[in-house]
Predict the structure.
Amino acid sequence: MSLRKRLVVVEPHGFCSGVARAVQTAEALLARFPGETVYGLNQIVHNQQVVARLSGLGMRFVKSVDEVPEGARLLFSAHGVAPEVVARAATRRLRAIDATCPFVSKVHAEVRRFAAQGACVVCIGHRRHEEVIGVAGEAPEQVRIVESAAEAEALAVPPDVPVAVVTQTTLGGEQVDAVMAVLRRRFPALRLPAATDVCYATRNRQQAVKALAGRCERVLVLGSANSSNSQRLVETARAAGAEAELVSALEQLYGLGLEAACGVGLTSGASTPESFLDAVVARLRERYGFPAPEMLAAVEEDSLVFRLPALDAGG
């Protein structure tokens, strides 16, 4: 490695199309109904800067539909919700707007289809993640959540029951591959989605951080601790041989020993705003003497824009 200080920002990084759609929907609701309190169920996306900014604009985030006054406007997050949550919102006459990422909605539809076929539906994912909770809620009696190859080995399914599989959209490729290898071996007639469930942005950012790890001995992944895709980027960078850290606040930079660092690479999770990356770059230059960042175009990513949902649900 060169001893000259280098700062490298990899492309693609940052917001995916589903996150951008959810954030834009929240902003549009706040602008359309300035005299009302707009509620958000859980975090709109898993990023503390985004949530703090929207809270400052007047959005109120809650953990339960029951915390929302009857008749109020409620925004479902990009991670999606179970049908019972939608039904509960309707019972309370809430004016619900659905910002679920279309790729997550695709997984919900797959679960419904496989469940209607009488299949045991294996969902590869983290059982406490909001996306997985919502997906499993489509057919709670038939969905089995599997986090690892070991859990796939231990999965018990009656011999006369078909087995299908879906995947959390933000998982690491190696984790999915390991579980899929077990499922394919144990269930040769395994039913698969028509296309992969792992989001294009997740795949692209993981490929990009591998390239970044080959250029820099230190990699900083910008994102919040509860962001699954950001955590997977840290794991991917480390597996590629770099020293990698998750950075969710500027103050974290001070304890990383960056004074002695030469090559530092930056990427950000799919729910991390560009403003935070800009702030990190500025702090690295001011405090640690890094030059203006080089841009590394590691993966070509087509622009994808999703239409916003209707904002006037329920009038």
User: Anything to note?
Assistant: The two ends are 61 Å apart (CA to CA). The CA atoms of residues 65 and 88 lie 7 Å apart.
